[in-house]
């Protein structure tokens, strides 16, 4: 019977077995442990100290050769242990001084240097510029005070002299003279300066009114605006609420609409398409009746007035409306104006 393939196993490298079933590395580790044990055995130490050292050194050599931990040799774990102890654990990142990164050639901009702090004194020196660059609260308060002082200068105290400069609404430049005729002189408007010194409010208003009457009036044509097409709210009658014609289960949350679509003869209408629109004519829900003619929504509507537009081949419906007022809405019964389920079944 063939042996099963051991999983997991080391498949990335292959070691040749040179000494029996051992590799040269395993043999050297085992021989090194035995040699150290032999040296302890030949030493003039006391037997209580000699024999524990002999056993420990020999077992250590066996562990190095034949005791891997998580597919790694014991020697690898020892190297990783001492490397992690003596490797630095504090790193300080500094922003590089490269201002125009895109102007450099490809490969010229290297990674920012990372400074490694080896001692406590070096850590304090590295962290000192970071602490100094943090903004203080006093500087922020000074900026707020200067901003408030600038804002107070914009307000004018009563009784001061106010200078109003009238800027021309339209500026015309005299054009070139017309060929075959005299040049056209276009009048230019001049800026005027009005100074009010200590005038009362009625007198200031009267003087402004006189100035506006004296100035020539310019006729301006208001721009024409084309209003966008809007959908009007065309619902004709209120939605009928029914509790008798096999209504669906009443809702338990506010602004949830449920109902049933019925033919003029009282039979249910399956597969009718319903569209719920808001007061501005925008569709907010689209529904379809099931085999019992029922329809319902899952999420509540916003407060307001809505209309229901119903469509079904062979039937005509009026557009009905209802009000959502953050209350429980009873089931709605929508009746067709004309049409018959028998004719509709015959067509299908």
Secondary-structure blueprint of this entry?
Elements: E1 17-19, E2 22-23, H1 24-42, H2 47-66, H3 74-86, E3 91-93, E4 114-116, H4 120-132, H5 137-152, E5 162-165, E6 193-196, H6 201-214, E7 237-238, E8 240-241, E9 258-262, E10 273-277, E11 283-288, E12 294-296, E13 304-311, E14 316-317, E15 320-324, E16 332-338, H7 341-347
Parallel strand pairs: 7-15, 9-16
Antiparallel strand pairs: 1-2, 3-4, 5-6, 8-16, 9-12, 10-11, 10-13, 13-15, 14-16
Helix pairs in contact: 1-2
Structural description of this entry:
The chain crosses the membrane at residues 51-69, 75-93. InterPro entries: CarboxyPept-like_regulatory. Keywords: Membrane, Transmembrane, Transmembrane helix. It is built from seven helices and 16 strands. With 348 residues, the protein is an alpha+beta fold. It has a five-stranded mixed beta sheet, with no helix packed on it. Strands 8, 9, 12, 14 and 16 form a five-stranded mixed beta sheet that branches. A hairpin with a 5-residue loop joins strand 10 (273-277) and strand 11. The radius of gyration is 48 Å and the shape is elongated. Mean pLDDT is 72; it is low at 192-197 and 222-235.
